[in-house]
Amino acid sequence: MYDRATRHQALSLVDAGMSLNQVSHRTGISRAAIRAWTVRVEPLPGVSAECPVSDGRLTPEVPPSTYSYLLGLYLGDGCISHVGKGVHSMRIACADAWPGLIDSCAEALSGVMPTSKVGRTQCKGCTSVGSYSKHWPCLFPQHGPGPKHTRSIELTTWQQELVDTHPWPLLRGLIHSDGARVTNWTTRRLAAGVRRYDYPRYFFSNKSADIRRLYTATLDSLGVEWKQANALNVSVARRASVALMDEHIGAKY
Ligand SMILES: [Zn+2]
């Protein structure tokens, strides 16, 4: 089976005006396959895909840093639900205020589940980005009934190992869904005039104590200092720690 990029590349040559024979000659892909893709470029949602988790680990086809980012998004604002016949929908609510993050979310979903089409549904103030597959619960075994803060959220061994080797994408996903980079500022009067001082910091807020613990444990593993700002909020404000977060995460876009 050809991967998604190959299928799209062949179709873009057809779109550019080349005949099926020419594209076939150029790419080495059969004319019949290319013609089939012009009708349906995506395989049926999630049905033909092999399970991306086998032998208790993620298969090498799934890019681990993309998975780690998607895990952060899922734990922040994601929801998996059964839609029938073993097929599950994975939906992530993305605020309309950050259009770039909606695109990043869509890319992460198709990166982890390339055989499923990613759809966008407009809701009030947010866009629900989602895709269908039989394997979303295999990829995210934290799936369960009710809101995440009402149940225990623990990573499996393979997930924890993956997060240990790709910690920054997880933090980026968590900040992109349930966090923010904010700047407080103050002015000081100096001989040269009034000068403004900015104090950037990162906040992360989640109702689930388990998810907050995962966030702070990952910060600890990277030497990022944090403080519990209040019951639900974790703050990163020390200059060196903010600099590290800026290098790997930055402001939302
Ligand atoms: Zn599976």
- Listing every helix as H and every strand as E from the N terminus to the C terminus, the arrangement reads HHHEEHEEHEEHHHEEHEEH
Strands of the largest sheet, in order across it? 3-4-6-5
Coarse structural class: alpha+beta
Largest sheet: 4 strands, antiparallel
Bound molecules: zinc ion
| pLDDT averaged residue by residue | 90
- Number of alpha- plus pi-helical segments: 10
> Per the principal axes of the C-alpha atoms, what is the gross shape?
globular
Estimate the helix proportion, in percent.
Answer: 40-55%
N-end to C-end Cα span? 36 Å
Number of strands: 10
Description:
The protein has 253 residues and is an alpha+beta fold. It has a domain at 1-42. Helix content is 42%, strand content 25%. The protein has a 4-stranded antiparallel sheet with strand order 3-4-6-5. Strands 7-8-10-9 form a 4-stranded antiparallel sheet. The protein has a two-stranded antiparallel sheet with strand order 1-2. Strand 3 (78-84) and strand 4 (87-95) form a beta hairpin. Helix 4 (64-77) packs across helix 5 and helix 7 crosses helix 8 (167-178). It starts with a helix and ends in a 5-residue tail after the last helix. The protein binds zinc ion (ZN). Zinc ion (ZN) is lined by residues 51, 53, 135, 138.
